[in-house]
Design goal:
Layout lengths: L6 H10 L7 E4 L16 E4 L1 H6 L4 H8 L14 E3 L6 E3 L2
Length: about 90
């Protein structure tokens, strides 16, 4: 290991071996994970990076999971969103 390791990735490698190519190690919030420094091996899973990001709680992740805007006022469809070309962030048009 010649790079810095996050604790959850190191825990996964020590228990399960190498992280499969193309996958990220994600915390399973639905199993009780609440704090970034809280590591339980049974709360970790190898998932595609997009799923790992959806498990976070920022409003954009919630929007991606539910398909609704942060405030739940309308559906997040291509007609309702615009993308900032500088940052790539999506915003509601309404």
């Amino acid at each position: 290991m010649d790079a810095k390791w996050h604790a959850h990735r190191l825990a996964w490698v020590l228990v399960h071996g190498d992280i499969p190519d193309g996958l990220a190690i994600g915390h399973a919030r639905d199993q009780g994970y609440r704090f970034p420094n809280y590591i339980r091996i049974d709360h970790l899973s190898a998932v595609i990076p997009a799923e790992s990001m959806r498990r976070w709680m920022p409003p954009t992740a919630v929007s991606a999971r539910t398909g609704e805007s942060r405030r739940g006022l309308h559906a997040m469809t291509e007609a309702n969103i615009s993308t900032d070309p500088r940052t790539g962030y999506r915003r509601c048009r309404e």
